[in-house]
Amino acid sequence: MNEKKERGTGSIKNKKDFRFFDVEKCDDCGICFSTCPVMELPEEYAKKDIMALIQGDVESSQAYDRCNTCHTCDVVCPQNADPYELILERWGEKRMETGIPHIAVTVFPNEPGNYWGSIKALMPKEELEMIDRWADLHPRKEVVLTGFYSNIFPYLTQTKLLDDLRPAIAGSPEAFFGCAGDIYKTGAFDVVEQMGKRMQKIFSEMGVEKMYCLMSAESMMPREVLPKRFGINFDFEIQSIEEWLLERIRSGKIEIKKKLDMKVTLQDGCLSKLKGGIEQDINREILQRIGCEIIEMEHNHEKALCCGYGASASKLWPGMDLFAVLYLMESSLRRLKEAEATGADALVVYCHGCLFMLSMMNEFLNIKIPIYHVTELVQMAIGEEPVHKHAYRAWDVIAGVTNLLLKCVLSPSYRAPFQPKPVSEEVEPLAKPSEDDIRMIEAFAKLYHSPIVQNFVTKALIGAASRAIVAVYSNVWGRSYYERKLKRD
Questions:
Q1: Cα→Cα distances 418→54, 208, 437, 438, Å
Q2: Given pLDDT bands bounded at 50, 70 and 90, which one contains residue 216?
Q3: CA–CA gap between residue 208 and residue 202 (Å, rounded)
Q4: How many CB atoms lie within 10 A of CB 353?
Q5: What's the pTM value of the predicted model, to 2 decimals?
Q6: Radius of gyration, CA atoms only, the chain
């Protein structure tokens, strides 16, 4: 056995071994972490960092501590060794020992405190009825999978663009767990495998022959990650809804009535980098065909920065709840400022998860760049007015998060780490907030939507205070600290 094999035999001990990083292919070139848009390490440091991870020396690795889960390192690796999966592997090993901080319940639909239960407490009747219809998984040949965060913005489907597919729309957070995309980011590979097998079973029982995904990034889980990493295959065609829209725009089935004449910048989500960046190209062509001029951010395509959501994954350790939130805010602020610096009329997203995070941080940090989902701009181009209430929904999300953080601060027992529950093959009900939680969430939402908060002065103060806190974090523990450390070293 050569030295590299001896260095790289460590793997996760969670019910079965998962090793997706190919240590035999890795030649320690460091391109992965020198190209990383978050770390941008000098070549010699990047080489040391990947070596430290291979050897299990996580204390010496910046990637272990700073990874935003953006997939760039996998995409640029010349040997296709998948270094991102090595980071996830090391996280998974540690989390099997320590558990995951309670704040992470937000992305587990089977845990009280999840986003979807909290938001449903605030949704209007027509949106709740929409989501209830989507939960119907009766047999059908075609299905439009809603995805995790589409269920937070159900009003985005209120467009005649989707009339031909409307009967096929289905999916719920508790049934599909976002195709396990968020859970994959934590390194909980055993839960991802369980979720993939459940999806396989549900789609087989439904008799699905073709699937469209409302959340294009999420489509990469069944198209790429689950088959390649876990051997979980789906014997039907999978398309993103944007791919379907582009085909109809090209064929003339969608008639563009007016060119938008807008300058826009585009947020490329983490999973959009997979499959050769096909989703990135599709969405750029859509925008160009409806009259938008695209101004690229400094980091784009394979080097695009995370919206901030994935940044919290590297801080999900017991006692680190606050640091997870602060790193998330720092990363979102960096991305929003980069978008703002382009001078574009709007920031366009095609991932509902990016819409979720950037809308929330745009409001909370008071950045003010308009944010649209790409389908909303297509609506405008065909003469339709989108519902577009992302800012309002962002404050609903903030209300739910406020309640969760308050409980973490006030209750030591609530801060206790947890291990994700196994995912059974059968669909379990969405974990709902308690009556006390609902009352608190409603009270926070009432305050946040009131004139007390929704005025220029208060929002400016909240934004300034939030950005100041992020600046302190950045200088003491975050990006600025690491930049200074590199210069010293």
A1: 27, 35, 20, 22
A2: confident
A3: 9
A4: 26
A5: 0.93
A6: 22
